[in-house]
Amino acid sequence: MNITIINGPNLNMLGQREKEHYGDFSYKKLVDTVKEHAAYKSVDLDVFQSNHEGEIVSKIQTSESDCFIVNAGAYTHTSIAVRDALAAVSKPFLEVHISNVYARDRFRHSSYLSDIAEGVICGLGIYSYIAAIDYFVHKYSSV
Ligand code: DQA
Q1: Quick one: CA dihedral 48, 52, 56, 62, positive or negative?
Q2: All domains of the chain, ordered by start, with CATH?
Q3: What is the pTM of this model?
């Protein structure tokens, strides 16, 4: 099974940005951890990060993976374009967040992605991604 993780703007700043919300692990640590877990679960994993909305849209359009794990960062709360790209390719995806967006600013409580996502995982730090990988492994291996 192929999964693409899509990380949006400022996630490359993990380890430096707002540690009270995102913890002190770096972006490299996040990538290494999810890749190690994916290898353990025999998942073919592609991890992508961009600070640019159009690049995220293009990645969604051109990816050949079976499904997506999407942390669109702030674009979660603003981007009709990212939503439309996910709707256009019509592949299953999970929306993930490192922080608990519902315990934060009100504008983070709304998402352009949640209602078309298969599910939403937030507040678990790196484990939000691990849980998302495990969900797809379970979904695609239990038939
Ligand atoms: C985030 C939450 C968003 O509100 C924020 O803009 C981010 C990161 C998270 O992973 O907790 O950049 O998606």
Answers
A1: negative
A2: 2-141 (3.40.50.9100)
A3: 0.97
103-143 pLDDT, tens digit each = 999 999 999 999 999 999 999 999 999 999 999 999 998 65
Given the CA of residue 122, which atom of ligand 1 is nearest to it?
11
Q: Taking phi first (over 0 means left), then psi (-120 to 50 degrees means alpha), and beta for anything else, what does residue 10 get? A: left
Q: Are 109 and 73 in contact (CB under 8 A)?
A: no
Residue 98, ligand 1, Cβ within 6 A: yes
Q: Can you tell me the distance from the alpha carbon of 37 to that of 19, in angstroms, rounded to the nearest whole number?
A: 23
What number does the ligand 1 atom closest to the CA of 123 have? 11
Amino acid identity for residue 7 in this structure: N
CA distance 138 to 99: 24
Alpha carbon nearest to ligand 1 atom 2, residue: 73
The ipTM (two decimal places) reads 0.99
User: 53-75 pLDDT, tens per residue?
Assistant: 999 999 999 999 999 999 999 99
Query: Does the beta carbon of 73 sit less than 6 angstroms from any atom of ligand 1?
Result: yes
Is the CB–ligand 1 distance for residue 50 below 6 Å?
Answer: no
